[in-house]
Every structure is written in C-alpha cells, then in structure tokens.
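Entry 14. Structure prediction run on the chain below.
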Amino acid sequence: MESNGSIRNKRKKSPIANDRPTKHLKPEILDALDRDQTPEDVDMHRLETDGEESRHLSLAPATADTAEWQATIEKVVRNVVSIHFCQVAPFDTDSAISSEATGFVVDAEKGYILTNRHVVGAGPFWGYCIFDNHEECDVYPVYRDPVHDFGILRFDPNAIKYMPLTALGLRPDLAKVGSEIRVVGNDAGEKLSILSGVISRLDRNAPEYGEGYSDFNTNYIQAAAAASGGSSGSPVVNLDGYAVALQAGGRADGAATDYFLPLDRPLRALECIRKGEPVARGTIQTQWIIKPFDECRRLGLSPEWEAAIRKGFPKETGMLVAEIVLPEGPADGRLEEGDVLIKVNGELLTQFIRLDAILDSSVGQKVKILVQRGGEDVEVELDVGDLHAITPDRFVAVAGGTFHNLSYQQARLYAIPVKGVFVAEAAGSFRFESTESGWLIESIDQKKTPDLDAFVEVMKGIPDRARVVVTYKHLRDLHTLNTSIVYVDRHWTSKMRIAIRNDETGLWDFTDIGEALPAAPPVPRKADFIKLDSVSHPAAADVIRSFVRISCTMPVKLDGFPRARKIGFGLVIDADKGLVIVSRAVVPYDLCDLSITVADSIIVDAKVVFLHPLANYAVVQYDPSLVQAPVQSAKLAREPIKQGASTIFLGFNQNLRVVVAKTTVTDITTVAIPANASAPRYRAINLDAITVDTGLSGQCGNGVLVAEDGTVQALWLSYLGERSPHSSKDVEYHLGLATPTLLPVLDQIQNNIVPKLRILNVETNTVQMSQVRIMGVSEDWIAKVAAANPSRHQLFMVRKIDCAPPTGYDSQSLQEGDIILTLNGKLITRVSELDIMYDHEYLDALVVRGGQEMTLKVPTIPTEDLETDRAVIFCGAVLHRPHHAVRQQISKLHSDVYVSARTRGSPSYQYGLAPTNFITAVNSIPTRTLSDFVTQVNKIPDNTYFRLKVVTFDNVPWMATMKKNEHYFPTMEFVKDPTEACGWKRLSYENGEEVKGVANLTSENMDEGAGHALDGGDVDANADADADA
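Output returned:
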C-alpha cells in the first residue's frame, strides 16, 4: 500500500515512538523450514506514512503469461480497485495518515469490497475507490476484524455507470501447496501491477510486526517468489480466477517470501454481513501459536496423544500451543503458557480455523478445553467472551487529547489485562513527555480512572485552566508510575465530545457530552526566591529575583512555527506592572496560553503585550497583585557592553537549573539567523550578537550577562534557526542581545504605550572597507567610518528586500546591493543606529548604488499588520495571511491565502495541499483575501469536489481538486479580538452557517513544512555555528 508523493512505508508505523526501550519480543518459534526467521525479518505491506522506509512485497512481475492466465487476469482486473483513504485520527494502534491501498469487489450487487484490516483501520476512516476504468465512488467501512487482517468496505454499485460490475469468488479451499498464483494490485494507486508466485506453505504462524497492529491466532499462507512490488489488500488469484487468499505481508530482508491471509474467516464474515447478521467473534483472551511436534514433545506432549493426533490429521506437522494468556481474562489461572491444545468440546483440534469457528459460535457460553501440561492432561471449562466488547468502538476528545478503553490488540501485545484508559493522541493538555502514544491514564485529580466512563466523569468536574495531578504509565514500562501536573485547556476547545462508530453509515457520530466549567478565580500566593550563596557578587546573584519561567502553549500552529509548546525564562523589567521580556523562540505569536511561574512556586496566567518584528523578543504581562514575592525589576544597562569586557553569565540550562560563571565577551558581531527553506518562520535579522567564552553559553537558551553591581548588560536569548536536512530537527542559536537597544521600546511599554514601530523592509549584512572601496565608496567616507566606529570599520549593504507591495516598489525604495551611508544625515556603522527607522515614515538615505552616490527618500512600513490576526482551518489546512517571514523570503505574494500547516489524515494531506502553498482561486473564482476564500468555500456542499488554483512558494501554479469533509474536518476560524477572554474569537461553520466555538484541536498533529520535526527538542548551536555573519 502506498501513499501520495514519494514512496513510503506501505503500512503505518506504530504511533509509539522509539525513544523508549524496545519491547522484548518473544522469539517466534517456527518449524524446521523456517527456523531462521525472526520477527525483524517479516514485514506487513505498509501504508505510506511520513518519510519512513519503503517495504516491499516479494513477488515477481508476471512475464510471458499463458493465454489462460491472460484471460483470467482480464476478468480479475475489473474487480480490483485502488483505495484512497484517510485514517483521520489516531486510534488504538493506528496513527492519522493519508494513503492508498488495494481492494477487490466480493459482492457486486450490494457493493462490498474486501481489503486489509490495517487499511480499514480501527478508528475513523474516510475514503474513496477507483475502478479499473477510473470511475470513482465513496467507500465506507462495514466491518473490520478485531484480530485478523481483513476488513470490508461498502460502496454504491449504482455509482458505477460505465462498466459492468462483477465480483471475485472467495475459495479458501483452493489454496494448495504448489499452486501457481497471481497477485493483482495497484502500484502507488496509479497503475495495475500483476505479480506471480507459487504457494509453498499453508501452515506458517502469522508474522509479528513488532509494535502496533499484528494479526494472530491464525495460520498464514507462504508463497515463493523472486522480486518486489505490489500493495496491501490485493487478491491472490488462481488460474480459474478465484480469490484464494488476501495479500497481507512479506519479509523485509529481501528474501523471496510473501505471506497471505487465508479467506476462511473473511468468507464467513461476508456471509454474515450479506444476511444482515452480526459477525460474532468469541475469545478466551489467549494467543496460540503453531509449534512442530518435536517442540510439542519437549513441552510434554505424550506419545499417546501425538499418535492420536497424527492418526486423525495425517498431514499435520504441528499443534497449537498457548503463547500468551492474558491476566484477568477467562483463561487466567486455568491455562498456562506452553499448554499444548488437544481437544475443544471433545473434538481433537490442530487448526486455527476450527478453533475460531468454535469460539465464534460460543459467545456467552462455555467451552471445554483439554490441554497437556508437562505430560499431564488438564481439562478446563472456560467462559467465551465477546471479542467485539474488548475492541474499542468509541473515543472521547477533550483538552486536545483523545482517549478510549485499552484494546485487546494492545493488551495482547504487552500481555496485560484488557482494561484502562488509553491515550490515543497524547496532545494538548495531555502531551506528556512527547507526542508519543502508548500511555495509560491511572488517575486524574487524585481520582482513579479505571475505564473511559470514569475518565469522562472526572473530566466533567475539572474547571477550565485548572492544574491537576495526573498519574499514568507507559505500555513499554508498566513498572513505573509517572506523575505530572497538567494544565487543563477547556477554552480553546471547550467541547468534550464522544465519537461512536456507526457501521450503518460508516461514520463516527460525534456528541457533545459536557460543557466546560468556568475557570476558578485566581488567588494571590506567597513565595520566596532561592539564594545563590556561592556567587561572590551578591548584587549579581540577586538578579535571580528578576527571572520567571514562562510556558507557552499554542492550540494552532501559525506562522510556520514548529512547536505546540515551549518553555523558557523571561526577565522581569517592571515588577510593579508585571512586565516580562522573553525570546520569540519561546513566545512566537499571541494565539497562545501563557503561564508564568515565579520563584518556582507561584503560577499565574499572562498575556502578550508586544512582539518585536525583528529583534527576537516579546513582552508579556502578568497580574502582579497575584504575586506576593520579592520580584525585582531588572536594572538594564544604558551603555553597550564592549568586546573583551568582563561580565558574569547567569543562565538556565536544559534542566531549567540556574548556572553562573565569570566570563569575558569574546565578540560582538552582526549576524542574520539562517532562514528555514522548507517553511518560513520568524527569525531575527539585522542584529548585533554577543558571544562569551564560557561553555555554559551553549547549554543555556535563556539568561543574562550581568555586571558585578547587578546591572543587566545583555539578554541571553534563544534564536530559532533553520531545520537540519539531516536530522529534521530545528537548530536554535544562543546569543546575547545588548540591553541599550531595548530601552526605547521598553520605555514606551512601561508608559502604557503599545509601540507602533516602522521598519525598513530590508535585510542587511556588513561589508568591510576593502569591499566597499571596490563597490564605489569614496575614500572620504571610508575615513569617516573609521572615525565613527573605531572598533569595527563596517558599512551595511542591502542583502534582501522583502516582498514588494501590490503597487510595487517606488523609485525611492532601497534596492539589493545598495550600500547605506547615512539615514537622516547620520552615518550608519552599527546595527543599533538603524533603529532610527522605528519613528519615521520616510528616511532621507544616502546610498551607493552601482558605484554612484544617490540620495533617496526611503519609505518605511508599519509593523502592526505583520503579525497574524486571523486564521482559517479548512479541510485540515491552516490558512492565514502570509506572515513576515514569508514576505522576507519570497519575491511576490500570490494571494493573502497562505497555507501555514496541515493536519495529518485530513483532505489537505490526501490531496496534496502543502504548507507554503498560496490559494488564488476556488472553483475559478479569485480569492485574494481570507474573507473571499471563506465566502466561496462555505458555498461548497459537504462531500463534494471543488477546484483550488494553487501557486507554490517557487511560483509554480497548479490546479488541485479536493473533496470537502465537514464531518471530520469542519471549517473553523480564529479572529483576534481584544474583547474576548483569550484575545481571540473562535468560530465554526456548519453547512456554511457561522456558529460559536470550535471542535477539538490538536496542534501536535499539524505539520508546518516538509520534513517536519517531531514536536520535541531542538538542536542547540553556538552563536557562530551557522549564522550568517
């Protein structure tokens, strides 16, 4: 099975990340023909997911087929369909993906398609199929087996108008050793592939795929073949044109071996569905495995029973042996691992198919099982449970996370009881160590949560913005009970919703089950700061009282920012007003929740007051009346620190611990943080960066350089840089920013004036005198530079001009390559001297262009509209006006509808609408603005195709077709509104009509660019690592 774009894994990877110890898999014991195989040698044909290695089907392309085979294939291909689908939300072992697969029609009259269970998935599914003549129709899940790797989809036969529909007959009895077969599938959902092989075995154990979904309690068919290719869900057909098996998996080590699922159980399920009967599935919560007679003898199989078995089943070479008996299940304490199965209900039994049949017909009843244990006969009577009852069919979405009862699949994998609340998507308030899945919630707010119903009742009683204690375990490490305090967000997504699977419609029905309780009013609290006794300068040590920890949580990914949560430290610049300055790598935009922790004791909410467009800092504010602690306003130096000066470095390391060192300023140099090519996001430009000679500077993303008398000489900040193409992690630079440059802006803020800065829309770099002389700067000006700036003889050249406004640049604008001599009559040799632009609508500039001096009246641009103030989420894509970083990196804006991020498993992912695209028209109607866009898309009926005219970041136009899906991906909107408690108004659209509030959001499930990084840590870099100096 393959997916859009590049070739990727054909089956989805486990959502459980690999930074925890790998699960210790039990060795798969196979018979003598297959003893060298280990779980790592096998692989399912994986769905295409995000950038994982491709796995292959070991079958050779059919060549020089006989006339009989050609006639058979011609009939079969009409039944084979390419399935394009989204699994729209993480659920159980499945992650959210968009992909393609194969299926085949098994009932043309009622419209049933057979495919793999890992295609249909355990959770919400949305998709369509394409027939051989390229007719298309929607498909809906009818059935997915709780254990075995098959599922059934439904389509409307009346939707296929231009070809006669036929069905492939299912004949599991015709799968025989030595039979020649063909696998007829779709290669990447685009072209037919026909692969040949020969059945070599009928009795191998189901391959174990490690973490995530695996089939079990069935035999698999093994085929000998010689090459690779193909896709999941393909029919395995014989010369007579019957489907004899369902393609499911193969070895990943290049060996010529492939594995097929027998069709006995799919045929039985299909017959039940045709009759309108439920597909009963029984279980005793025991996993069995086929073991050859020699191993069974070692486990205690007596000669008498072996003789009886061999007489009754002369072709058998092995028996079923208990592999895993789940705790607290029907067989717990009655059966044991290593028990050799002899009889069920008095019937000698050696095959999975017969065992399944007995259990499926005995749900709610008892069965008698005879096993041999260490040579002794042991007979037990067991209750047969309902397998569907321990396979979750509902989930709850609240506070950004999704939850359901633990499934039999997961419990079997880890040999634990089938109970507990499983975190299907660890996001929002429930993003624990990382975005990985695999967590089990033990308690919330000191209340036990043994199942989903208990979890819902506890969450109903927790008010918005509450901080509660959560205990939880990971499936890989059930020995350890983790404890965290979570901030419960019930305001960005106020609705708690339950989704219940509806096999009649093929959809999951959503119901609101609890309104958010209002937040409790904050209470003033007391605290004191730690003392740095070991620091020799008390005044410098006392600056610890000016630091607060800042946590920023973002419900939606905007502006290309790669994280949903950031933690850092800020410096209090006005304790009386609660003003704090912090890096924009921590607070990138104001659609966020801010929490400030004072003295590691008091937690208060805060709001964004100001975001600097260029200098990488933000100013936030908390309510100082809630903080009864000796918070100290930092004293900021008014004179710039010099190169070579001694200073004290005080910073916070990766463990959020304070570290202090005496150090020296090694360099002050003009840098530009490298741009991120795959997804433009905020970066600092035109700045003088300070570096120091202590190794602590590279470990600390937040801190200060402080003089012995306690004066703060520079901020030490994190600067978000580019994404590494090798590790797909984001580089952060740690640099110092001298405080004098901050003062003009901070003074306004302290006087309750929100700065309205104007800037030159250019990026500059320094040029030395040897260069400017060649470029036409006169000797007089070179002498003036030396006199004006004895420490650094430099001028500034325009390196890049921001995107032109719609009216274009006027003749007075700066151009790339201009060397700036003066602005308003002042010689410019330092970055700080460019700050003259903040307060002037026009600047009188003297520049050297083409070797000639020129006088220009250069316009500046206002910065109020550079920050995002409106975002639309449509079909899973996050859209807003192109933010400042886009304007810095592009030469032309194609529209004001810019794709900033997209949600995995959404229509935007399925149909290829990618971050950094511009949407210029909907159904041929131009959409220059977001309002135009919202107006047009609200006219489109649900589940209907429409056209989008799109332009890539590299100016390549293309036409996208997309199908609207309001059921799983409603249109939502966030609009900045100071009258709202959160500062943003939230809207949804139902049938084109505006309603208040939004559905559950998961920013962790959003990708903001190609080669997206996991929402985890960054790569730290020293100041001079790769920054453009």
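Residues 525-751 form a domain with the Thrombin, subunit H fold (CATH 2.40.10.120).
Filed with the rest of this week's runs.
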